[in-house]
Amino acid sequence: MTFRVSAVQYHLHTISSFGEFAAECEHYIKTAGEYGAEFILFPEFLTTQLMSIGDEQGKALTIEDLPQFTDRYRELFAGYAQKYAVHIIGGTHVLRRNGKLYNVAHLFYPDGRIAEQAKLHITPAEVEGWNMGAGEGLEVFQTDKGTIAMLTCYDIEFPEIVRMARAKGADVIFCPSCTDDRHGFHRVRYTSHARAVENQVYVVLTGTVGSLPTVDLMRANFGQAAVITPNDIPFPPQGLLAEGEINSDMIITADLDLELLYRVRERGSVTTWRDRRTDLYTDWT
């Protein structure tokens, strides 16, 4: 099974309307479609761009205002997924549930279905700046191209949760991210490579670029997309199928071959999943 993925290095900048946001998202979807992408990944906190629209006094909206866009966000991306016959991981959007805010990744299927995965590990900045809550459970998602998981940014830095996703059958981890400096970016990037090696999975990663000068906690972004593989023959020696130019407004595209994963798991130079010492530590299966 081989399928094509695209990851969007989404350029955040001040906008004036939801329609402008919608047009920009469609531009990236159309572009990925021109390359034949079957899955399109947008970055974490994609919809914070809507906060830059501002209120009637011209002041930027706050994180508490963002959930008011939920219905329009879901309708928009569900419509695009159906219109262009693609799976879209629409980055993350902030939802309000039981009086608490959650940072939630969304998978939009070509047939109109919508699946959600709340971010499970919340950074100190998200807690202190936005009072963000943590998700309660991990799901994997069946698609006609295979089983995937959505783990957002900080989540990828925790090996246990990726082990759980792999044990549940995920072959591809889609990781929408948003980092503001080199330190944060490299934490997510390096651990994405580690998770791919440990679990013999693909990791598709992307982040925000640009800036939202009027939006708290979104004034700086440092991002780069990558399609990451295990480090073994027949994959590239550096474990990279594709990567973008740092902080550029662009899309990267690559083909994921699941048969190569299965072959490496069975008879690779190393067989990290099979060789786990579950007599010494938890067997997540």
UniProtKB/TrEMBL annotation:
Coiled coil: none annotated. Keywords: Acyltransferase, Transferase. CDD domains: nitrilase_Rim1_like. Pfam families: CN_hydrolase. Residues 3-258 form the CN hydrolase domain. InterPro entries: C-N_Hydrolase, C-N_Hydrolase_sf, UPF0012_CS. One of its GO terms (molecular function) is acyltransferase activity. Belongs to the carbon-nitrogen hydrolase superfamily. NIT1/NIT2 family. This is Acyltransferase.
